[in-house]
C-alpha cells in the first residue's frame, strides 16, 4: 500500500472532520468563479447602447458582496477544520510511533541515536501536519479551480481555450522533472536533520565529558560540519525550487500572451465579443495561478513523503522479541528461575553465552560473579526478554518465558541496574515509579530498606526534592539507593541487583546487604557483583567464565575447589590488603 493510502487509513477517525474541511475548500474554490463571470457580464452590459442600468449594477455588487462573504466563511471552515483534523491526527501519529518504539526490543536501538528517533517523532510527523492541513486542502481546491475554470473557458470560446492550454503540457513536464530531481534532496534534508538532532542529543547528554576532556573545540568542529551539511542540503533543495517556480510562472504567462494577441485580434475583427476577451483574461489568471500553486505544492508533498518514509520505517520495524499470539499470564508464586542450555550472541561474532544451565531456588539468594565482559548482565537481559536466546529455554516457576506476555513477565521481576536511570521528578515519584499508587508509608519503608531514608530526610524538600534530569542533583551512591528502593517497593517474587551497590561506600553497602538478606525467604534474589563481600553470603554462587558456567556452589565450597572463584577472591584480598597497607602508611 502506498504511503498516502496508509496515512489516509491511519487518519480514519478524522475522515468526518476532513470531509467538512473539504466542503469548505470546494465552496471557496467554486466561489472564485463568480468574479470573472460578473466582470464578463458587466463588460457585456457596458457594450450595449446606453450602458448598464443601475439595477444591474446594484445586483452585480450584491452578488459580489455575497460571494466574497460566503468565500470568507468557506475559507475559515477549510482552514480551521483542516488544522483541527491535522493537529488531532499528528499527536496520534507521534504516539503511534512512540508506542511502537516502546514495543521494540533492545537490538533495534543498537544502531539508532536517540535524537534521530526524536526527530522522526517530532519533525517528521510535523511535516505530515503540513500535508494534511496545507498541502492536501490546497491540492483539492486548486485542482477544482483548474477544472472548473477550464470548463468555463471552453464554454466561452473552445478554439481560444484550446490555444491557451498549449503551455499546460510544458508545466506538467517541468513539474514531473522537478519532483524526480528534488524529491531525493528533501529526503536527504530530513535525514540530515535527524542526524543533527542525534549528535546534539548525544553532546548535550555528554556535556560533562566534553568539558572534562576539553573537547569543546572538537565537538564545535563536528557541529560546524553537521550544520554546514544541513544548510547545504537545504540550499540545494531551495535552489531547485527557486528555479522551478519562475519557470512555471513564465510558462503560464504564455497563456495570457495568446489571449492578448489572438483574443484581441478576434475582438477587433468582431469574431469575438470584447466581454468574452475580458472574461477570458480574468478566468485565465484564475487558471494559471492554481496551476503554479499546484506545482509549488510538489515541494510540500515531497517533504511529507520523505517524512512519511521515515515514520513508516519505524512503524514497520520488526521486534526481535515477540509475544506469542496465545501468550498467557505469568503466575510466579514461588519465583524459581531456571536457565536450560541457554546460548546467546549479540552479533554474528563470538557467542556471549554458551550452554548455560542453572536454577535459582525460590526465596534464596543466587550470586553471579566472573571477570568483566563475561555475560553476567546479558543473563539478566535474557531473563527480562530484552533479547531472546539463540538456543535453550528460560523458565520461571516452570513456565517458559516465551509463552507468557511481556508485561506479566516484567511485572514479576524488579531490576536494579548498574547505570541507574532516574526521571526528572521528585524522589517519591522516582521510588514509586513501578508502583504509582504506593502509599507514603510504603515509599518510606522501601527507602529505609535501601538505606536511602537518611539522606532523603536531610534534603531541603525531603521526599519532594526534584532530582533533575537523570538524577543529576544526586551522587552516584544516592541514585543507586533510590533505584534499590524503587525495586524493593514493587515486592515482586524476583529481585535482581546488577552491580547495584558499586557506587556506595563499603559501610553503606554492608547495611544494604544486610537489609536485602532480610528479604531473602520472601523473594528470589539474584545478585551480580564484583565485590566478594556482596556475594559471599549467597546461598549459591555461579562463576561465569568465557561465556560458560565454570563453577557453582557456596562460598566455602568454591574456595575449596581452588578454581576461578578462589583466584578472584585471592586477587581481591590482595587488593584490600594493599589498600589497607597504603592507608596505614599515609
Ligand atoms: N548491546 C550489545 N551489542 C553488542 N555486544 C554487546 C552488547 N552488550 C554487551 N555486549 C558484549 O557482550 C559481552 C558481555 O557483556 P555483559 O554486559 O553481559 O558482561 P558483564 O559480565 O555483565 O560485564 P561487567 O562485569 O563489565 O558488567 C561483552 O563482550 C560486551 O562487549
From TrEMBL:
What residue intervals traverse the membrane? 52-70, 130-154, 160-178, 243-265
Localization, UniProt: Cell membrane
Which InterPro entries does the protein's record reference?
AAA+_ATPase (IPR003593), ABC1_TM_dom (IPR011527), ABC1_TM_sf (IPR036640), ABC_transporter-like_ATP-bd (IPR003439), ABC_transporter-like_CS (IPR017871), P-loop_NTPase (IPR027417), Type_1_exporter (IPR039421)
Q: Which Pfam families match?
A: ABC_membrane, ABC_tran
Q: Write one Gene Ontology MF term.
A: ATP binding
Q: Does the keyword Metal-binding apply?
A: no
Please report the stretch or stretches of sequence annotated as the ABC transporter domain: 337-571
CDD domains attached here? ABC_6TM_exporter_like (cd18778)
How does this protein sit in the membrane? Multi-pass membrane protein
Identify the keywords attached in UniProt to this record, alphabetized: ATP-binding, Membrane, Nucleotide-binding, Transmembrane, Transmembrane helix
- The ABC transmembrane type-1 domain covers 19-303
Q: Which Gene3D superfamilies match?
A: ABC transporter type 1, transmembrane domain (1.20.1560.10), P-loop containing nucleotide triphosphate hydrolases (3.40.50.300)
Full protein name:
ABC transporter ATP-binding protein/permease
Amino acid at each position: 500500500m502506498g504511503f498516502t493510502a496508509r496515512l489516509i487509513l491511519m487518519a480514519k477517525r478524522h475522515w468526518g472532520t476532513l470531509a467538512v474541511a473539504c466542503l469548505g475548500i470546494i465552496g471557496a474554490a467554486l466561489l472564485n468563479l463568480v468574479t470573472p463571470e460578473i466582470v464578463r457580464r458587466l463588460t457585456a452590459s457596458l457594450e450595449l447602447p446606453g450602458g448598464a442600468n443601475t439595477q444591474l449594477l446594484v445586483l452585480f455588487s450584491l452578488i459580489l458582496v455575497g460571494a466574497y462573504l460566503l468565500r470568507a466563511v468557506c475559507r475559515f471552515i477549510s482552514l480551521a477544520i483542516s488544522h483541527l483534523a491535522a493537529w488531532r491526527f499528528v499527536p496520534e501519529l507521534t504516539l503511534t510511533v512512540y508506542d511502537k518504539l516502546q514495543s521494540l526490543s533492545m537490538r533495534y536501538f543498537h544502531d539508532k541515536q536517540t535524537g534521530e528517533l526524536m526527530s522522526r517523532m517530532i519533525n517528521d510527523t510535523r511535516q505530515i501536519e503540513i500535508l494534511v492541513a496545507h498541502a492536501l486542502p490546497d491540492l483539492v481546491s486548486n485542482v477544482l479551480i483548474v477544472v472548473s475554470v477550464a470548463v468555463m473557458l471552453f464554454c466561452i470560446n473552445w478554439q481560444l481555450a484550446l490555444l491557451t492550454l498549449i503551455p499546460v503540457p510544458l508545466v506538467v513536464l517541468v513539474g514531473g522533472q522537478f519532483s524526480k530531481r528534488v524529491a531525493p534532496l528533501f529526503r536527504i534534508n530530513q535525514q540530515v536533520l535527524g542526524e543533527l538532532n542525534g549528535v546534539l542529543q548525544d553532546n548535550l547528554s555528554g556535556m560533562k565529558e566534553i568539558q572534562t576532556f576539553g573537547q569543546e573545540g572538537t565537538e564545535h568542529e563536528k557541529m560546524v560540519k553537521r550544520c554546514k551539511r544541513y544548510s547545504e542540503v537545504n540550499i540545494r533543495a531551495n535552489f531547485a525550487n527557486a528555479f522551478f517556480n519562475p519557470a512555471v510562472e513564465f510558462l503560464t504567462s504564455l497563456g495570457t500572451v495568446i489571449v492578448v494577441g489572438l483574443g484581441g485580434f478576434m475582438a477587433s475583427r468582431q469574431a469575438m465579443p470584447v466581454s468574452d476577451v475580458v472574461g477570458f483574461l480574468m478566468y485565465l489568471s484564475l487558471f494559471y495561478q492554481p496551476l503554479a500553486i499546484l506545482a509549488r505544492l510538489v515541494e510540500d508533498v515531497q517533504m511529507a513523503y520523505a517524512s512519511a518514509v521515515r515514520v513508516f520505517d519505524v512503524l514497520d520495524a520488526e521486534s526481535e522479541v515477540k509475544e506469542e499470539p496465545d501468550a498467557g499470564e505469568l503466575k510466579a508464586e514461588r519465583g524459581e528461575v531456571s536457565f536450560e542450555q541457554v546460548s546467546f550472541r549479540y552479533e554474528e561474532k563470538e557467542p556471549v553465552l554458551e550452554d548455560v544451565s542453572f536454577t535459582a531456588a525460590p526465596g534464596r539468594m543466587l550470586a553471579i560473579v566472573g571477570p568483566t565482559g563475561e555475560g553476567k548482565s546479558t543473563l539478566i537481559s535474557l531473563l527480562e526478554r530484552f533479547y531472546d536466546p539463540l538456543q535453550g529455554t528460560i523458565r520461571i516457576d516452570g513456565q517458559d518465558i516465551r509463552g507468557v506476555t511481556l508485561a506479566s513477565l516484567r511485572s514479576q521481576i524488579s531490576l536494579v541496574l548498574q547505570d541507574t536511570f532516574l526521571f526528572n521528578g521528585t524522589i517519591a515519584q522516582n521510588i514509586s515509579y513501578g508502583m504509582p499508587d504506593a502509599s507514603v508509608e510504603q515509599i518510606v519503608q522501601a527507602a529505609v530498606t535501601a538505606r536511602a531514608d537518611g539522606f532523603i530526610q536531610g534534603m531541603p524538600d525531603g521526599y519532594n526534592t526534584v532530582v533533575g534530569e537523570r538524577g543529576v542533583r544526586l551522587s552516584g551512591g544516592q541514585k543507586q539507593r533510590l533505584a534499590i528502593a524503587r525495586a524493593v517497593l514493587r515486592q515482586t517474587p524476583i529481585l535482581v541487583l546488577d552491580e547495584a551497590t558499586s557506587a556506595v561506600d563499603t559501610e553503606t553497602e554492608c547495611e544494604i546487604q544486610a537489609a536485602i538478606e532480610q528479604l531473602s525467604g520472601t523473594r528470589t534474589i539474584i545478585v551480580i557483583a564484583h565485590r566478594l563481600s556482596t556475594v559471599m553470603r549467597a546461598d549459591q554462587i555461579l562463576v561465569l567464565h568465557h561465556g560458560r558456567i565454570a563453577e557453582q556452589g557456596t562460598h566455602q565450597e568454591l574456595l575449596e575447589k581452588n578454581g576461578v572463584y578462589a583466584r578472584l577472591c585471592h586477587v581481591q584480598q590482595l587488593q584490600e590488603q594493599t589498600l589497607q597497607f597504603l592507608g596505614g602508611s599515609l
